[in-house]
Every structure is written in structure tokens, then in C-alpha cells.
Design brief:
The protein is mostly beta strands. Helices cover about 0% and strands about 55% of the residues. The protein contains no helices and 55 strands. Strands 14, 16, 17, 19, 23, 24, 25, 26 and 28 form a nine-stranded antiparallel beta sheet that branches. It is globular and about 120 Å long.
């Protein structure tokens, strides 16, 4: 407890019960969140900790350099504690069952505490515990679970230090060889050594399509039945030729492979065109090189190396996915030593967008050179079924954001709402930069503070079955140019402001660098990546005029020309709820002119609920925007109503006729109208406080303009 109310408390942590059975502990390292607090031969840590929850890790090292870790949670509560604090409610989710399709004794499972809550505060800590082991410390976590029934305890801690627990049972079962959802399952245990399995055809060396009977057979290898060859020829194959296999598309191929001599090579093929053509993708290793993705008869681009080099006589589990998405073939792979945990991300993720890409085909085995090369525990599952949904991460477009207040940081909105999953739902959006987790939770968007500089941020989305996908976004935080000025170019530059959902005023100075540029300034919900993202838009157009966006087009209530190098002051009054805005322009040394009165937001943004970013872009030339000021509230402009069109006869045929003009339909939503001005071209017919006016007009057609001014000086015309 923080007894003196200074926001922290002194804590003594002892690692004295740590021991080494065959020697002694020589070093104790205490750390929090990767930050080392103390590293010495002293087993006791004495340190001040701030109010809140702290997970402290102890790493001990013996005289041989061997290590072990343990952690402890320290909760500091405010002075006097909080006797009124209610404990949080832990919800570990429903019991779940998974199938170990790879038959390696483990399966990735998703633990989801998103149903937990705290009635009088917030949950600040999550711990998933199995026995004495802390498995994870996030609300949603993906962990490897062994075959069997696993009892997992969720412990949550709120901001007052109170805790609550819940348990969930996670059952991991072995698959059945007759699994009806699988396209293929085979462990070869029911076959005799020397036998050729049904629906498998071996072919000869150098990628021949000619059959090579009995070159691939069932054999005992590594203590189990397996399928393979000892032929030392190069590029031999065995193909699965079951009914319809040549039409398989969008599937996952799992199993394990082994070679007795790293001077040889072994692999598996997917989307193979056999027997029609010698084309396929393959996961392979040869001559001791790391496993890699490769293509034959077409090509692969992207990340093809898995970074795992094989050892002789060791089984290696594999998982390969092939998928046709929007005209691109995706090939992904994971490899890991049997008995170890499966990687949680794809070690290789490659694509083929060429005209020769493959979209359908069977699976097979590939081998070359020395030793025995075998495979086992083969399973093919469709990705289009319920067994394996397709998940796609979308981290949004790259952003450039200015440190508008000059404090070295900028608030950036990260948006993963474009991510998708073909079945089920995304349960976690995790944003990371390097080893730092910026956000992990169920919301697709989040705001983070980033320092000036370039940041590569990775979004990982996870579904309820533990399937992952990653996508990167680059965010560049720039220092303000010239203090409070920004210069446009052909790229989109966005600058965050306080979110506005009602009426607000924006004022800034803008200077075009030429007489016929195409430079705009706009407001948007999140940084704009294109014209359609802007709701409120004013621009210097290529005709040398200033205009504004009104729904589906650009317009201007009056023609305002601009000159290169001259500064123009803009005043925008925006009503987000009404999706309208008015714009006023003051040339340097001149008077304010109405540019746009109650214009509609751009059509694509007609339903936007907030604006929190201003942006600049110039497809031709450039312009400089300085001293952007955004303030909530502000005067809303009046609404001018000049009445219906009139047709009046010249009764006395003297060439003119008295006309009554009526502006009484005009209104002001937040004040009163103080002046009415009627004009015919450049001629002012009436300028005064009355809504009605009597004027005399010559015979002919007249287009009259009514301009009304409210008690705050805002104007509107009709």
C-alpha cells in the first residue's frame, strides 16, 4: 500500500528460495517488461514501485550458465487501500475442443478473456495459468496445448488491485484417419513394408512424368511406418492420384518428413499438375540447406525461406497452405522439429501472380540424392470448409503524420477494420512495433502516440481457431515544417486534431506556389489516403480559382481568383452532425468573402460521425498551409431564402415596375440575422435590417442575389 500517498511504495522481493541441485546460483536478475531492475549476486531486490500492477520476473543463473525463470505480481494500491473497490469478473470463455491434425501431440489453441469486466474500474492484468506455469498475459492469447484435457486458470486484476479467477477446459484430441472433413488422411500403419499405397503413383528421375513402379514404398523408418524412397536419383516424385485430387484447390497439407542423410533432399509438393504437366510448388530441403518454398513450371515471389536447417534422422512436422485470392496464388509454410511447439506465424509466405500460376492440383513427395527420404501422418484439409477458414490482415495504407504541437510525438490512428476472415470472427487485433505491443484487443482501431521518425508497425489478426495473418503499415511522424506550416505534394499528408463530432471552426492560412495548381486542404475521419476520404474540402483549382466540395461536385458561391505566392486566410464553420459546412476566404490585405454556404460533405462521407484529421495534397504544384487552428463550437452561418421566382407585368407600360422582395424565410440556427442585402449583379438594390424590400426593376429578366448576415458576421446567399 502507498501509505504516504506519494504514488509509490517500497517493496522487498526475495529470490532466496531459488536453488541449484548440483551447485549454486551465482546471479539474480530482476526485470519488469524487459527492463532490467537489478542484475547481481544479491538475491534480494529493494525498490519503489508506483501505484498499479507490476509483473516482476526473476532470472537465476548457475555456475554452468544454466538459467531458470519465475515471476511474481506486485500490486500497489493507493493510500489506505480502496475498501469500496469491487472485484472484477473473470470470464475464461466456454470449454473448447481442438483436433491435433498434425499428430505431433500439440495444437495451437485460443484463450479468450474478452468477456471479463470490472464494474467500477478497468482490468489492468490478465494471466493464463496452467499448474505453476504462466502461459500468457494478454486478454486473448494463442498457446500450444498438448493432447489431452487441459485445465487453464484465468486470473484478472483490476486497477484497484482486486483479483478474480475462472477456469476453462481445453481438450486436444488426436484426429481419426477416417475424418470425413479431410480430403486425405494417411499414416501408413495399416500397410506392410514394401507395399505401394492405393492411389499413389511414383515417377522417374529428373521430374519425369513416366511411372517408376515400386521406387516409392512403405517402410519402417524412425520407429514407425512411413512412405518414401532410398533411390539416389535426382528429382523423383510420388503423386497422390485419388479421384478428384487433380482438382483440389485452396487447401492445407500437413504431415512430417525425415531424411537419413543431409546429403540428400526431401520435400512435399502442392497444387501439382501431375499427370498433365510437370508443374507444382514444393516445400523442400536439400544438402543440409534450410527448408524453403520453391516452384517448378512457374515462379514464387516473397518470403520463401523458413530458416530451419534439418538434421539427419529427425522428423520435421510441416504445414503448407495454398490459396487462390483475387488472382494471386498464396503459398505459406511452417516447419518444426517433431516434439517441439509449432511456430505461431508463417515462416514463409510467398505469392505467384504470373500468367503461369497454379490454382488446382494434387499433393506429392519429392526426393533427391543420398539416403532414405520418407513422409508420414499426411492430412489434406480444405480451406473452404469449416476446418480452416481464411484470415487476412489489413493494416491500412501507409501514413505520414505531423507532430503538429512540436512535442516530439503525434497521435496516430491504426485501423485494421479492413481485415477479414472467411468463417468465424476475428477475436484479437494485435499491433506491435518490434518487440513492443502497442495494442492487443478486440477493437479493429486504436490510437497510439508515436515519436518523430519512421515506424514499421505490424498488425496480427487472430480468429477463434487460432489462425493468424500479419500485415505491416509504415507510419512516418514528421516535425512541423517552418514551425506551424506544412507544404503539400502529390502524396497525402495527414495531421491529427482533437476529434470533432458537433460544430467546430477551423482557421488557417494557405499560399499557392503557382497560378494554376491543384492543391486541396480537407478534413477527414482518420488520415486521408485519397480524395474520397475527405468530408470538408477547399482547394486551389487548375483554373486559378478557389472552390469547395459540395456533395458530388466542386462549386463556389462567388468567384474568388488566387495568385501565386499570395496568402489567403480560410475560415471554415463545420457542423459534423448536419454534415454541412460553410467556408470564408480573406485575401491578404482584403476583406472576407463567402466561398461556400452550407455545402454538403463529400458524398462518400455523408454519414461520417466525427472528423479528427486535416490533410493536404497537390496533384499539380504545391501549396503551404500555416497556423491551423481548430476549436469546438463556433458560429453557424445563417440560411438565406430569397423566396420563389416571380413574373410581373409592366402594367403602365413605362418600361419598369415596382417589385416586393421577401427574405422572411431566411433563418439563423444559433442567433439572429442583422442585415439583408439584395443585389442585381454589381448593383446593390437594398442593404439594411429589414427582411422585405420594395425596389423598381426595368423590363427584362433579373437574377437577384440575397446575402444575409447574422449577429456574428457570418453570411449566406441565395
Amino acid at each position: 500500500t502507498d501509505t504516504d500517498g506519494d504514488g509509490s511504495a517500497l517493496v522487498v522481493l526475495s529470490g532466496g528460495e531459488s536453488y541449484d541441485p548440483d551447485g549454486g546460483v551465482v546471479s539474480y536478475r530482476w526485470s519488469e517488461g524487459g527492463v532490467v531492475l537489478q542484475d547481481s549476486g544479491n538475491d534480494t531486490l529493494i525498490r519503489e514501485f508506483s501505484v498499479g500492477v507490476h509483473e516482476i520476473e526473476l532470472l537465476v543463473v548457475d555456475q554452468d550458465g544454466l538459467t531458470d525463470r519465475d515471476s511474481v505480481v506486485v500490486t500497489i494500491v493507493s493510500s489506505g487501500g480502496d475498501p469500496t473497490n469491487s472485484a472484477p469478473i473473470a470470464d475464461a470463455g466456454p470449454d473448447a475442443e481442438y483436433v491435433d491434425y498434425t499428430k505431433d501431440g500439440w495444437e495451437l489453441v485460443t484463450l479468450d478473456a474478452s468477456g471479463s469486466y470490472d464494474e467500477d474500474g478497468v482490468i489492468v492484468s490478465y494471466r493464463w495459468i496452467q499448474g505453476a506455469t504462466v502461459l500468457a498475459t494478454s486478454a486473448v492469447a494463442v498457446v500450444a496445448m498438448p493432447v489431452g484435457v487441459n485445465t487453464i486458470t484465468l486470473e484478472v486484476t483490476d486497477d484497484g488491485g482486486a483479483k478474480s479467477t475462472d477456469t476453462v477446459l481445453v481438450a486436444v484430441t488426436q484426429p481419426s484417419d477416417s475424418d470425413p472433413s479431410a480430403l486425405l488422411t494417411e499414416d501408413f500403419e495399416a500397410l506392410a513394408s514394401g507395399q505401394v499405397p492405393n492411389d499413389w503413383t511414383a515417377t522417374g528421375a529428373n521430374n519425369s512424368l513416366n511411372p517408376a513402379p515400386n521406387s516409392y514404398t512403405v517402410r519402417t523408418s524412425g520407429g514407425t511406418k512411413a512412405f518414401g524412397t532410398s533411390d539416389t536419383s535426382f528429382n523423383t516424385h510420388a503423386h497422390f492420384t485419388g479421384a478428384g485430387a487433380d482438382q483440389w484447390t485452396n487447401y492445407e497439407f500437413t504431415g512430417r518428413m525425415r531424411l537419413s542423410d543431409i546429403g540428400g533432399g526431401v520435400g512435399v509438393t502442392v497444387l501439382s499438375a501431375y499427370p498433365s504437366a510437370d508443374k507444382y510448388y514444393k516445400l523442400r530441403t536439400y544438402w543440409g540447406n534450410a527448408f524453403e518454398l520453391d516452384a517448378h513450371g512457374t515462379s514464387l515471389g516473397g518470403d520463401t525461406s523458413l530458416g530451419v536447417a534439418p538434421q539427419a534422422n529427425v522428423w520435421y512436422r510441416f504445414r503448407v497452405q495454398v490459396e487462390d485470392v483475387s488472382g494471386v496464388t498464396h503459398v505459406r509454410a511452417r516447419v518444426w522439429a517433431d516434439g517441439t511447439g509449432e511456430p505461431t506465424t508463417w515462416q514463409a509466405d510467398a505469392t505467384d501472380d504470373t500468367s503461369t500460376r497454379l490454382t488446382a492440383g494434387t499433393v506429392g513427395i519429392w526426393a533427391m540424392d543420398a539416403g532414405e527420404k520418407v513422409v508420414d501422418d499426411l492430412v489434406v484439409q480444405s480451406l473452404d470448409g469449416s476446418s480452416q477458414p481464411t484470415i487476412t490482415a489489413n493494416a491500412g495504407v501507409d501514413q505520414s503524420v505531423s507532430d503538429s504541437d512540436g512535442d516530439g510525438f503525434a497521435t496516430v490512428q491504426l485501423d485494421g477494420s479492413g481485415s477479414s476472415v472467411s468463417a468465424g470472427a476475428i477475436v484479437e487485433y494485435r499491433w506491435t512495433e518490434g518487440a513492443s505491443v502497442l495494442y492487443a484487443g478486440a477493437n479493429p482501431t486504436t490510437n497510439v502516440d508515436l515519436a518523430v521518425g519512421s515506424h514499421t508497425i505490424t498488425l496480427r489478426v487472430t480468429d477463434g481457431a487460432g489462425n493468424y495473418d500479419n500485415d505491416d503499415v509504415v507510419v512516418v511522424v514528421t516535425q512541423p515544417s517552418g514551425g506551424d506550416c506544412q507544404t503539400s505534394n502529390s502524396g497525402w499528408q495527414g495531421f491529427t486534431t482533437a476529434a470533432q463530432s458537433g460544430v467546430f471552426t477551423a482557421e488557417f492560412d494557405a499560399t499557392p506556389n503557382g497560378a494554376a495548381i491543384d492543391g486541396l486542404t480537407c478534413f477527414s475521419n482518420g488520415p486521408a489516403g485519397g480524395y474520397a476520404d475527405g468530408a470538408v474540402i477547399v482547394r486551389f483549382n487548375t483554373s486559378g480559382k478557389i472552390d469547395a466540395r459540395n456533395g458530388a461536385t466542386y462549386a463556389a458561391d462567388q468567384s474568388i481568383a488566387y495568385a501565386a505566392g499570395q496568402s489567403y486566410h480560410f475560415r471554415l464553420i463545420v457542423d459534423v452532425a448536419a454534415h454541412t459546412y460553410s467556408a470564408y476566404v480573406t485575401p491578404a490585405g482584403g476583406s472576407e468573402q463567402l466561398l461556400a454556404s452550407n455545402y454538403a460533405f463529400r458524398s462518400e462521407q455523408a454519414n461520417v460521425s466525427k472528423l479528427d484529421c486535416w490533410n493536404i495534397n497537390a496533384s499539380t504544384g504545391s501549396h503551404e498551409v500555416c497556423d491551423m487552428q481548430v476549436s469546438s463550437g463556433g458560429n453557424q452561418p445563417p440560411l438565406a431564402e430569397a423566396g420563389p421566382n416571380q413574373s410581373i407585368a409592366d402594367a403602365d407600360e413605362n418600361g419598369s415596375e415596382p417589385v416586393s422582395l421577401d427574405a422572411s424565410g431566411s433563418s439563423d440556427p444559433d442567433g439572429s440575422i442583422t442585415n439583408y442585402r439584395w443585389s442585381d449583379g454589381a448593383t446593390v438594390l437594398y442593404d439594411g435590417p429589414n427582411a422585405t424590400a420594395n425596389v423598381t426593376l426595368d423590363q427584362g429578366s433579373h437574377t437577384l442575389t440575397l446575402t444575409v448576415t447574422d449577429d456574428d458576421g457570418a453570411q449566406s446567399s441565395d
